[in-house]
Amino acid sequence: MTRAGGSYGSPTHPHVRSRTMRKNRLRLAGVLAAVLVAVTGPAAQAHDKPPTLADLAERHGRYFGSATDNPELVDEPYKALLGSEFDQITPGNGMKWYATEPQQGVFDFTEGDEIVNLARANHQKVRGHTLVWHSQLPGWLTGREWTATELRAVLKKHIQTEVRHYRGKVFAWDVVNEAFNEDGTYRETIFYKTLGPGYIADALRWARQADPKVKLYLNDYNIEGIGPKSDAYHNLAKELKAQRVPLDGIGLQAHLALQYGYPTTLEDNLRRFAELGLDTALTEVDIRMILPATEEKLAQQAEWYADLTDACLAVRRCVGITVWDYTDKYSWIPAFFEGQGAALPWDEQLRPKPAYYAIREALR
Ligand code: 9MR
Predict the structure, then answer these.
(1) Where are the annotated segments for Disordered (predicted)?
(2) Whole-angstrom Cα distance, residue 313 to residue 361?
């Protein structure tokens, strides 16, 4: 299994705040009130369960989801919150190629199925992640040379077998993940090098044949703001639409980092994809920081979570938000970025952080 290349949340956007001081003050007041209510408990609502993030998002016609991963599902308190607070889940690893086709032509959907079954029990919808990606590929695929004809057949079979298996069980697929470099050129993956850029249109068409109803997405990081990489997606999406290639949405992963600044053009960016007739989603949100997490950093993080929630709510075709797991206990960040972490709305003890209350406020 290979690690993801690139630098998630790299400093492509200067930290220019777009919010007015007034709005920030109001928001801070709201968050403080929410924290107070959470700590003291409002007498009047003592017996009412407070609405979950999913409940609040639903009022806007959006979902609020979390990624999860199979090994975590033995953690009962974790699982309880996962099942109650969210109305959408994404398997962090279980549907990737290494897991689903460990040997050529031998498919194993055990991990993905476990998550789909859990979601079903909790009335949650599932985003399928991911069919075509340069990372976490099985050794049989990366360990040899392929002719274009061979690789096309392998790719088609993988996509169609997996999409067929999950037909009616996932509402969206990240069909191709992380296809572009930071400068907007195509990433030189095994698929690009062997098949050329047309592999993306082919992958979308094959997925559509296998499930006529599922929403088909391209998904990437560092495309939250307007810049060369999101421009590449905008251009590609326009071309694909013109060629009637089935593409329904763009997933903006949103692995942000406090030290690199907030992508202030997020809302404009979501809007320009909507204008192409596409859905968008924030698919893998986390906001990491250089440790230790101070009160100031956690407050800034909370504001960013609120800001990105506002941005999604402001654009009708932004269909939902997914955090890349919900608790710092299971975040991928510390293992990938030394000295960084505290990226999620719940801490390692599953206690809600200021970010959680800020999301609630934004969703109200
Ligand atoms: O959350 C996933 C983590 O458990 C894996 O070790 C990692 C390997 O690259 O992939 C993580 O998820 C990635 C996602 O599939 C695609 N976007 C970036 C995510 C974080 O690396």
Answers:
(1) 1-20
(2) 12
Structure pTM? 0.91
Residue 324 to residue 311: CA distance in whole angstroms: 18
Residue 10: what pLDDT?
58
Which atom of ligand 1 lies nearest, measured to the CA of 92? Answer: 1
Neighbours of 133 (CB within 10 A): 22
3-class secondary structure, 259: helix
Query: Quick check: CB of 70 below 6 Å from ligand 1?
Result: no
Q: For ligand 1, what atom is nearest to the CA of residue 69? A: 4
Matching CATH number, 19-363, of 3.40.50.720, 3.30.390.10, 3.30.540.10, 3.20.20.80: 3.20.20.80
CA of 92 to the centre of ligand 1 (A): 7
Sorted by where each begins, the domain ranges of the chain are 19-363
Measured on CA atoms in the order 307, 328, 224, 10, is the torsion positive or negative? Answer: positive
Residues with pLDDT less than 50, the chain: 1-6, 11-23, 25-26, 29, 33, 35-46
214 secondary structure, DSSP code: S
Q: Ligand 1 within 6 A of 136 CB?
A: yes
